[in-house]
Design goal:
single chain; 472 residues; alpha/beta; Aspartate Aminotransferase, domain 1; Aspartate Aminotransferase, domain 2; 2 domains; 18 helices
Length: 472
């Protein structure tokens, strides 16, 4: 009955409606039906066979790699190593003292570590072929994580298959959009990529300048006072390196800890270089300064330097580290570390615990090398005396980064011909936050004796005199 009444009302409304209104509505209904049923016309223009061939003949694809007119560019003339990368290396037939690779403790030449890797190959093979969460976890991975946590006297550790992705994955696992990250402007490229991936608000402070850092922290505090509601959901992070790769400086950790406590921020430290090199037992920058490691929220590092393996690690509290097993992109989606390299890393840590005198030996060589480099005529040495990474800058710069870099590359080429392997520090100029001044980077290892140090200084002097005099 109600339906019939509604139909009757609609019929009366139709009769009372103006004619033009009915016509317009009818046209609109026809147009809608036409739009729904019509087949769109193909916009493709069919070319004849001749036209197709002409277009193909005229097409010149861009090269995948841009053509570099400078045939002396290092990318076109790579140094190729023949044999083991130990204290000495063979480059294009020349036997060279090696100050180019980060073999700080000399573990590349450790027969015990080699034997442990070979033994592991016989048991597990050469790879895991899967991420950690998908049948890529082998018992030796768990052993390594346990050893790292115990060595650093922290609750838990997580290992990654690639050192670069460790830092670049760990940072965005915690810092997200809306958070604030305070970071030293001199940090390495992996940290830069990690903070970009986090999409957080990034605040760079001057390199190892605690006054500038505190200035930024005060500015953030002032903003939070104005907007306390937003402050409650904004997390703050501070990221530094134990030893800065791009400069060789050691971070001012005591002052950093004071600021961390005062302004209530989370502290992450990349100890890729300081791990296994600083402190009386190689436990890094915290041991170097005598600061409890639990004052640091997360310690990240590479296993590709001091312990001569592959991959990286993060250590900290169980609450912090466990979060990465679901949020660390490099952990979740990369094939896990080859078991043989995990076994090599375990043996290296065991050796570090048994032979703590090696860290004093390394420190003595670092200081000795730093003192001799400071006496070079044409160079200014950069970096801390206790750090294993040293940088040599031209005393008289050409005021052009390209020209300085070309001079330094010529010097390193001459050094190789005379029996010393050194490298010019390379950077991705278009991607770096701050491109450092061109330098020759030297990596010190504990196997160097007095004669090796003297040999290195002599060759650098001779090579620089030869190149610089030729330019004049």
């Amino acid at each position: 009955m109600a339906v019939q009444w509604d139909l009757h009302e609609m019929y009366l409304a139709f009769l009372q409606a103006p004619l033009y209104h009915i016509i317009i509505e009818g046209l609109l209904m026809v147009w809608v039906v036409w739009l729904l049923l019509r087949k769109p016309k193909s916009r493709e223009t069919k070319l004849t066979r001749k036209e197709q061939e002409e277009l193909i003949a005229d097409w010149h694809p861009d090269p995948l790699v841009p053509i570099n007119p400078d045939r002396s560019h290092p990318a076109l003339n790579p140094w190729v190593i023949e044999g083991k990368v130990g204290k000495h290396v063979y480059i294009r037939g020349n036997r060279c003292l090696n100050l180019a690779t980060h073999n700080y403790l000399g573990f590349v030449e450790s027969q015990e570590i080699n034997d442990s890797a070979v033994e592991c190959i016989n048991k597990y093979g050469v790879g895991s072929c899967g991420p950690r969460g998908f049948y890529g976890t082998v018992d030796v991975h768990l052993d390594l994580e346990s050893r790292l946590a115990k060595f650093m006297d922290l609750e838990e550790a997580a290992i990654y298959a690639y050192g670069f992705s460790t830092i670049a994955s760990a940072i965005p696992a915690y810092a997200k959009r809306g958070d604030v990250i305070f970071v030293d402007e001199g940090v390495n490229f992996s940290i830069q990529q990690g903070i970009l991936a986090s999409r957080s608000d990034i605040r760079y402070f001057k390199h190892d300048d605690m006054e500038d850092l505190e200035r930024l922290l005060k500015e953030q505090n002032a903003k939070e006072i104005k907007n306390p509601k937003r402050a409650k959901v904004t997390r703050k992070f501070l990221i530094v390196e134990g030893v800065y790769m791009n400069s060789g400086d050691i971070c001012s950790l005591p002052e950093i800890i004071e600021l961390k406590i005062k302004y209530k921020i989370r502290l992450f430290i990349d100890e890729s270089i300081s791990f296994g090199t600083l402190g009386h037992s190689g436990r890094g920058v915290t041991e170097y300064y005598g600061i409890p490691r639990d004052h640091v929220d997360l310690i990240m590092g590479s296993m590709e330097y001091a312990i001569s393996s592959v991959g990286g690690f993060c250590v900290g509290s169980t609450y912090v580290v466990d979060h990465q097993r679901l949020s660390g992109q490099g952990y979740c989606f990369s094939a896990s570390l080859p078991p043989m390299l995990a076994a090599a890393a375990i043996t290296a840590i065991d050796t570090m615990e048994k032979q703590t005198e090696m860290f004093l030996e390394l420190n003595n060589v670092c200081r000795k090398m730093h003192a001799h480099l400071s006496e070079l005529k044409g160079f200014r040495v950069g970096g801390h005396k206790d750090a294993p990474v040293k940088h040599l800058y031209l005393r008289e710069s050409t005021e052009c980064l390209r020209s300085d870099e070309k001079l330094l590359r010529d010097i390193t080429t001459e050094c190789v011909s005379k029996g010393l392997a050194v490298v010019v520090a390379s950077y991705l100029e278009e991607s770096e936050h701050l491109v450092p001044q061109p330098s020759i980077r030297l990596s010190v290892n504990r196997l160097l004796d007095e004669s090796n140090v003297q040999q290195a200084i002599k060759i650098i002097n001779e090579a620089s005199d030869f190149v610089l005099s030729a330019k004049c």
